[in-house]
Amino acid sequence: MSPSRVLVLNSGSSSVKYQLLDMRDSSRLATGLVERIGEQTSRLRHTALTTGETREHNGPIADHQAALKTVAEELARDGLGLDSPELAAIGHRVVHGGMFFTEPTVVDDDVLAEIERLIPVAPLHNPANLTGIRTAMALRPDLPQVAVFDTAFHTTMPESAARYAIDTRIADRYRVRRYGFHGTSHAYVSRATAKLLGRAPEDVNVIVLHLGNGASASAVRGGRCVDTSMGLTPLEGLVMGTRSGDLDPAVIFHLARVGGMSMDEIDTLLNKRSGLFGLCGDNDMREIQRRIDEGDEEAQLAFDIYIHRLKKYIGAYFAVLGRVDAIAFTAGVGENAAAVRAAAVAGLEGLGPAVDDGLNAVRGDAPRLISPASARVAVAVVPTDEELEIARQTYALVGKDK
Ligand code: ADP
């Protein structure tokens, strides 16, 4: 039997998330997370879905190499080791692929060099992604390693959506343009939404709202992305957990000139101390809703600003797409916060979408419609599965090579 397992690795700066899948039936064999790498209090939580057993390790894990070695040992304890002939490939999430990587790509030295060249536009993410790939290559040099880029789905955006209105020569010299992120999720969710509607992705126009800690919206026409809210970096667009999203760029000059803040301070302010957290001190939507229920005005205003921005993007993407078949909510907030979904769609009935309060209140893991049958535009909750999408793309590529 040909190898059918794919290990998916999502390497962050101090964490590694992983899943081992069997692509014969897309089932999960194991999943886990290593957190706080490089600290004394590192933790690995591993679940073997084959047995249902969960194991936890607490104690220092010095670096990504040590983290991956521990993951490999855990997998081996369940008979799922990385040396297994059944492992077909390792799929890596890579955040920034620039304009160069439009598809999942088998990693070689040139690919590594290009991901490295993109570090200036993805300083928080690409270095960790690279470390993960290099570590995995050292562990299994003979195995195909596939990079799946968060930006790839957005490379179909027309120049009119991808360009900023600045001097073209400067933009080209410094590769300043809108790349978009969360692409694996937008691709998966737009396709799953078409399936939920019982139609082919090519026939369906969808607005996807990926609302997690990071958040982005995309306009998908017939399965291809035509606009998205994140830009050169994941800072642009919606109000997020700790990121500001859109703002007048002159705010930055003002804070530097009048506030005397350094570029690094402003960077930290906008990426880590803004968004919901900056507005009300909390970035978890559950906590914000709890405070709103208690009559907290600061939390209410943060919620209102979040919803106002979301609505503006929904409206903009109606204009970009011309015809919209569905709005799909996904990720932590989108999948769980019924109040956010209801508020985002409230008042848009004239454009076609509506939310049925009863359907919206039902919780579940399956893709589902929350609009009444009479709505001209469907509204859906479609749980995202970036790991499965990375595994699928990896397996499709490695299968093609054979
Ligand atoms: P990321 O992958 O960007 O870290 P997730 O997609 O996991 O984020 O989303 C995390 C966010 O989801 C949390 O910060 C929290 O605000 C929100 N969330 C999770 N569960 C709920 C819930 N039951 N109700 C409201 N919000 C929730």
From TrEMBL:
Cofactor(s) needed for function: Mg(2+); Mn(2+)
GO MF entry, a single one: acetate kinase activity
Keyword field contains Kinase: yes
Signal is among the record's keywords: no
Binding site for substrate: 93
Record's catalysed reaction(s): acetate + ATP = acetyl phosphate + ADP
Organism, scientific name: Streptomyces gibsoniae
Active site: 150
Amino acids binding Mg(2+): 10, 386
Physiological role: Catalyzes the formation of acetyl phosphate from acetate and ATP. Can also catalyze the reverse reaction.
Cofactor binding remark: Mg(2+). Can also accept Mn(2+).
Pathway terms, separated by semicolons: Metabolic intermediate biosynthesis; acetyl-CoA biosynthesis; acetyl-CoA from acetate: step 1/2
Protein family membership: Belongs to the acetokinase family.
Protein name from the UniProt record: Acetate kinase
PROSITE patterns per the UniProt record, alphabetical: ACETATE_KINASE_1 (PS01075), ACETATE_KINASE_2 (PS01076)
Lineage, top ranks: Bacteria, Bacillati, Actinomycetota, Actinomycetes, Kitasatosporales
Amino-acid positions noted as binding ATP in the UniProt annotation, renumbered to this chain: 17, 210-214, 284-286, 332-336
Gene behind this protein: ackA
Compartments (UniProt record): Cytoplasm
Residues the UniProt record annotates as site (Transition state stabilizer): 182, 243
EC number: 2.7.2.1
Assembly with partners or alone: Homodimer.
Main subcellular location of this protein, as a coarse class: cytoplasm
Keywords: ATP-binding, Cytoplasm, Kinase, Magnesium, Metal-binding, Nucleotide-binding, Transferase
Organism superkingdom: Bacteria
